[in-house]
From TrEMBL:
This is Dehydrogenase. PANTHER family: 5,10-METHYLENETETRAHYDROMETHANOPTERIN REDUCTASE, PTHR43244. It comes from Streptomyces griseus subsp. griseus (strain JCM 4626 / CBS 651.72 / NBRC 13350 / KCC S-0626 / ISP 5235). InterPro entries: F420-G6PD/mer, F420_G6P_DH-rel, Luciferase-like_dom, Luciferase-like_sf. GO terms for molecular function: oxidoreductase activity, acting on paired donors, with incorporation or reduction of molecular oxygen. It comes from the Bacteria. Residues 8-290 form the Luciferase-like domain. The keyword Acetylation does not apply. Keywords: Oxidoreductase.
Length: 326
């Protein structure tokens, strides 16, 4: 079991994210994971710095903790040749601590560059497949070209390659995306505690680590925590079909007007009761995830990191799937 800390790039500026990463390393987290967005989900979150610059700074200011994108879309806003180069560079600067998390993307971030974000999910999966093939091709060394249905590469070479290439974790939920994760990735990334996601990944031949984001909101009392999560993170309850389609923060604001505090309390571990946090984390362990990402939507990141170190680190690391218990 490894435990990571989610850097909420939509909620904090770049310097603050670096500071939190340093605190996370001191607190014993195994890795930090940062979202790679152009826009925040909601305007009141107020931030969305360039994830790759933040990761470079974290690599320079830490020595042990792993780094991961959670996740990057290497098809529209970025060409996969750029991501192949960026990931290789970050792997070198971090001395092998980087994991490249990729996914098929959200309209929220990808539509901004102009050509448009495909409406058909099948097209997005085709593009992600081609992007992964291009990244793997460039990482094999030498000058490379590629002619795909959607993406092309012309005489490109990544000159600075690490001896050990970064692990690629592919975001998935449905049957096709889990197949892509199993066949073209080295691991799985997901945000829901559904056993079917990991099962489909394993059935398709996937043998790598499985990353799951665990929703939490720390504050001294559950009401304060839930209110904070409702203000900034209610979008998380909309489901992937909504999250991948809406184009701007104002649309997410409109789509989440009916989310209640009770809904947050049902989904998130809120407040300061360690038992509730263990309960929510256990659901991800039972679903088959072995890389748990602590995603705090509470108002006090320092308080959460301290709470995790004092109350959660050891019990969460000791969790086992219920069916494996004696």
């Amino acid at each position: 079991m490894q435990v990571g800390y989610k850097l909420a790039a939509e909620a904090f500026g770049p310097a603050e994210l670096v500071r939190q990463a340093v605190l996370a390393e001191e607190a014993g987290f195994d890795f930090v994971e940062i979202s790679d967005h152009y826009h925040p989900w909601l305007d009141n979150q107020g931030h969305s710095p360039f994830a790759w610059t933040v990761l470079g700074s974290i690599a320079a200011k830490t020595s042990r903790i792993g780094l991961a994108t959670g996740v990057t879309c290497p098809t529209v806003r970025y060409h996969p040749a750029v991501i192949a180069q960026a990931a290789a560079t970050l792997a070198l600067l971090s001395e092998g601590r980087f994991v490249l998390g990729v996914g098929s993307g959200e309209r929220l971030n990808e539509h901004v560059v102009g050509p448009g974000f495909p409406d058909a999910v099948s097209t997005r999966h085709e593009m992600l497949t081609e992007a992964l093939e291009i990244i793997r091709l460039l990482w094999s060394g030498g000058y490379r070209s590629y002619e795909g249905k959607h993406l092309r590469l012309r005489d490109a070479r990544v000159f600075d390659l690490p001896d050990e290439l970064p692990l690629i974790a592919v975001a998935a939920s449905g049957r096709e995306s889990t197949r892509i994760a199993a066949e073209l990735g080295d691991g799985l990334f997901a945000t829901e505690d559904k056993p079917s996601i990991v099962r489909r990944y394993r059935d398709a031949g996937g043998a790598g680590p499985c990353y799951g984001e665990v929703p939490m909101a720390w504050a001294a009392d559950a009401h304060t925590a839930a209110r904070a999560a409702l203000e900034t993170s209610r979008w998380a309850l909309t489901g992937w079909k909504v999250m991948s389609e809406l184009p701007n923060p104002v649309n997410f604001d409109a789509a989440t007007t009916t989310v209640r505090e009770e809904d947050i309390l049902e989904k998130f571990a809120c407040g300061a009761d360690p038992g509730r946090y263990i309960e929510v984390a256990q659901s991800y362990v039972d679903a088959g995830f072995d890389r748990l990402v602590m995603q705090n939507a509470g108002p006090d990141p320092d308080g959460f990191i301290d709470f995790y170190q004092r109350e959660l680190d050891r019990p969460i690391r000791q969790l086992k799937p219920n069916n494996a218990r004696a």
